[in-house]
Amino acid sequence: MISKSHITVRYAETDQMGITHHSVYPVWYEVARTDFIKQVGMHYSEVEKAGVMMPLVSLDVKYMGYTKYEDELTVEVSITKLTAARMEFEYKVYRNGGDKPVNIGHTAHAWTNREMRVINLKKTHPEIYAIMEKAMQSV
Amino acid sequence: MISKSHITVRYAETDQMGITHHSVYPVWYEVARTDFIKQVGMHYSEVEKAGVMMPLVSLDVKYMGYTKYEDELTVEVSITKLTAARMEFEYKVYRNGGDKPVNIGHTAHAWTNREMRVINLKKTHPEIYAIMEKAMQSV
Amino acid sequence: MISKSHITVRYAETDQMGITHHSVYPVWYEVARTDFIKQVGMHYSEVEKAGVMMPLVSLDVKYMGYTKYEDELTVEVSITKLTAARMEFEYKVYRNGGDKPVNIGHTAHAWTNREMRVINLKKTHPEIYAIMEKAMQSV
Amino acid sequence: MISKSHITVRYAETDQMGITHHSVYPVWYEVARTDFIKQVGMHYSEVEKAGVMMPLVSLDVKYMGYTKYEDELTVEVSITKLTAARMEFEYKVYRNGGDKPVNIGHTAHAWTNREMRVINLKKTHPEIYAIMEKAMQSV
User: Fold this and answer.
1) Which of the two ends of chain D, N or C, has the fewest CB atoms closer than 10 A to its terminal CB?
2) How far is it, in rounded angstroms, from Cα A34 to Cα A43?
């Protein structure tokens, strides 16, 4: 499954170079992740209430282009890997109407409990694991 | 008591106007508040661990001037009001070497428990109240 | 005219108190301001390209309630004052479905040129002034 | 050369997981980069005034641990690569007193002019190139 999120660049997200500050893209990835999880039938706030956290283990971002204030963008997100211990996402940011992404990123997340200890999601919360597995496989 | 905090403007804090984004000043006020509380002999993280929260009730900011990337600033903070239910702070931001503040602000905070219910701090945590009272009065 | 903007609270906008950080509301006000100006037939990025800046002169925020991750909100914005030298806006933030605002704010802006010198907008850019005047008066 | 920058985690930098939000580390890297460049005898704001920009081309971050509000950290930064077209940095974030980094990152930057066109720094600004080269080689 690929989920699409719509973003309009905020003034506060620009820097004195006149473009979106590079630290903002991971924030948009997170917005896209929230939408993705909502679309597979959960709310990430409920996942956390169930005691499951998804702290980042790694992040990478490629900046092929830049974006500007008021630009209208689409962030596409998909799951690229799922195990009992972690999950990985890929993000592609497009300027609306553009056919090449201006930005591509990846995040890897550990499944942990509230105390940031790694859990085996398949055992502790098989229903969440099943939903994510389905989301990864469906087209 | 007046506490002084030193801030250097970060690149990420600028916007496309080429100056510090206006939403950053409340973040600096908070840095100054943290330093202030540390200086009176506590850590705000310990205050929260004791179950006492200080959510904002109101904020006001006057922007008399602007600041830029790499500017070195001093934020002065003092308590202007303390009751069993709330506390108020005043902030003055100076460019180092300048004698007029470029920015002045105020925040008012409620004393609450973790569930955001207002508490009577004087009764529930008299030791924290006493420390704040002393900080307000000492020169 | 009152313009309405829709906001979903981002994870990055929360703090360790578990609620939206208080410095985020001015960022939402700015999103609402951008939408407002777009709705009256301009783009704020074009206003800036015309050499007109609107730096903040003052900001105030009242926090009557708090908001949380994934909360869906509406920000209402209107112009409360317009002169040749400055403009003021009022913002009301509602949780969707709620009838009382959880947050109310005001910003005052100076009309300046790129060098942050105050201009007389009515004389230098009467067409922008006229659009804002119409936006203030229309219901 | 390795430059060391001191950071205290701000309240606004935490999220509802109770730790520093992952998008904050690139902001600290930038603070460290600013200090690094200052230490080699320039100011990054002057580099930009000379018409030289250093937009990010890529970013990667490994989160081996987490950090919390009021944690005192040191960010070590060094140049790992320098060519006429780009420059790369490595960052290591340590909790003060700790001997293993809690976070490691890398950024790659293009040398561009104000219009974001890639330049050959060695030809257009040999003096800046020389300073960076010296900073990379000196221990």
Assistant:
1) C
2) 7
